[in-house]
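Need a sequence for this fold. Nothing fancy.
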């Protein structure tokens, strides 16, 4: 079977990387529409303007503070068409970037991703997670291509609250386990082909980088200090994790994360990356990983302060009935085909209980 590898055309990371936005945007078009998180905009507005004005680009900057809905993306896409935009830039966290991706897709324009937090691996991916007006996830769209540029200014991300980076680490923790599950399973990647071995290898590298540099990165997260550990973890979260999963697939970890995110109290109390980290623990146990592997994984979560029990994620009642219901819902996920052997609800419920009771 044919296999396909896709990734962002350019990934640029480092302190002050935002200064390169104008130069890179100018290679795609002169009329730049920047959709920027409304809370972030006051902190970067001067640097944003300087980066673009240096290339004689006067951008249209649209502050954004809403959910990722079809209505919002359609509205903004119409504004972009009316302006005559040639390039869409998304600046901010997940909601803003996904909305900007959807706008670029609807307008048929190239997209530049400028994340200001590292809470998930989404900035480098084609995926757009869409919600309804009640904040419930209703679907996922895909851009035709990954972002033309991903510009990661680590000096900006270093000022974001530490919890966001912990969430990003949780999302990236899945890469090793899910890429291996995808390789052994029967599912297809987002390219509609069987996984590439390269993706599996990237997942392993991502995991090793997190274990080596994660504790050091968490010690400086939120302080504004950019260290070698911090740079390595940002690279693992925003690039390695994204490219690994897009070229292989998702598995148990994200089946669990999706179902946890659908529970309102959990969604309100904890982050997607924290759900994904918990799902990784469930997957590792369900797969029968060795005691040494489990100790390494659980110990790492404890060291960086990752919540690893359902009550800590916000599930109001954690009893046998709740676990069995959650396990049953997870088994219906399309991601469950990415496993060496078929797991049923009883298998997953047993894994959930083992995670809950792990010392």
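Here you go.
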């Amino acid at each position: 079977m044919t296999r396909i590898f896709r990734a962002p055309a350019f990934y640029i990371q480092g302190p002050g990387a935002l200064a390169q936005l104008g130069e890179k945007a100018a290679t795609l078009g002169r009329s730049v529409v920047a959709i920027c998180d409304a809370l972030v905009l006051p902190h970067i507005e001067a640097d944003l303007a300087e980066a673009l004005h240096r290339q004689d680009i006067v951008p249209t900057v649209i502050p954004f503070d809403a959910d990722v809905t079809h209505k919002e993306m359609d509205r903004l896409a119409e504004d972009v068409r009316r302006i005559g935009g040639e390039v869409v830039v998304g600046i901010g966290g997940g909601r803003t970037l996904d909305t900007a991706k959807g706008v670029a897709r609807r307008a048929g324009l190239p997209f530049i991703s400028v994340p200001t937090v590292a809470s998930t691996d989404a900035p480098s991916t084609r995926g757009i997670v869409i919600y309804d007006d009640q904040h419930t996830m209703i679907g996922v769209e895909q851009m035709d291509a990954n972002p033309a540029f991903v510009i990661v200014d680590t000096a900006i991300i270093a000022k974001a609250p530490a919890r966001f980076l912990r969430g990003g680490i949780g999302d990236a923790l899945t890469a090793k386990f899910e890429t291996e599950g995808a390789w052994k399973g029967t599912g297809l990647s987002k390219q509609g082909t069987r996984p590439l071995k390269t993706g599996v290898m990237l997942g392993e590298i991502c995991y090793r980088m997190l274990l080596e540099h994660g504790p050091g990165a968490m010690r400086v997260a939120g302080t504004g200090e950019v260290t070698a550990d911090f740079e390595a973890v940002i690279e693992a979260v925003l690039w390695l994790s994204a490219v690994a999963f897009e070229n292989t697939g998702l598995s148990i970890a994200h089946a669990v994360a999706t179902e946890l995110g659908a529970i309102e109290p959990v969604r309100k109390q904890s982050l997607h990356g924290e759900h994904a980290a918990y799902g990784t623990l469930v997957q590792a146990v369900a797969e029968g990983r060795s005691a040494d592997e489990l100790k390494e994984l659980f110990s790492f979560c404890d060291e960086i302060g990752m919540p690893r029990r359902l009550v800590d994620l916000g599930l109001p009642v954690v009893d046998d009935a709740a676990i069995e219901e959650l396990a049953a819902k997870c088994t219906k996920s399309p991601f469950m085909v990415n496993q060496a052997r078929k797991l049923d609800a009883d298998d997953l419920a047993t894994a959930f209980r083992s995670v809950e009771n792990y010392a």
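For context: The radius of gyration is 20 Å.
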